[in-house]
């Protein structure tokens, strides 16, 4: 399956799940929660429809490598 984003052509490949290396921080709830909080702060009407439970005052969590 091919895709086009702007003028950039992207060729999609389907890989078996065991061949994909996910970022080590994927699933770290503090990181995801802080980003949801800040999305709610930026646009409460749009992101509020997801019914996330985060307050809108969390600071971003960023990890500095492994």
What's the order of the H and E elements? EEHH
Low-confidence stretches: none
Strand order of the largest sheet: 1-2
First CA to last CA: what distance? Answer: 33 Å
Question: Which descriptor suits the 3D outline?
Answer: extended
Total strand count, please?
2
The major beta sheet can be summarized as:
2 strands, antiparallel
Outline:
It contains two helices and two strands. With 66 residues, it is of the alpha+beta class. The chain starts with a strand and ends in a 19-residue tail after the last helix.
Describe it.
By secondary structure, this protein is α+β, with helices and mostly antiparallel strands. The chain has a domain at 27-66. Helices cover 27% and strands 12% of the residues. The chain has helices at residues 29-42, 44-47; strands at residues 2-5, 8-11. Strands 1-2 form a two-stranded antiparallel ribbon. The radius of gyration is 16 Å and the shape is extended. It starts with a strand and ends in a 19-residue tail after the last helix. The relative contact order is 0.16. The model has no long low-confidence stretch (mean pLDDT 85).
Topology overview:
Layout: E1 2-5, E2 8-11, H1 29-42, H2 44-47
Antiparallel strand pairs: 1-2
Features:
27% helix; two-stranded antiparallel sheet; 66 residues; 2 strands
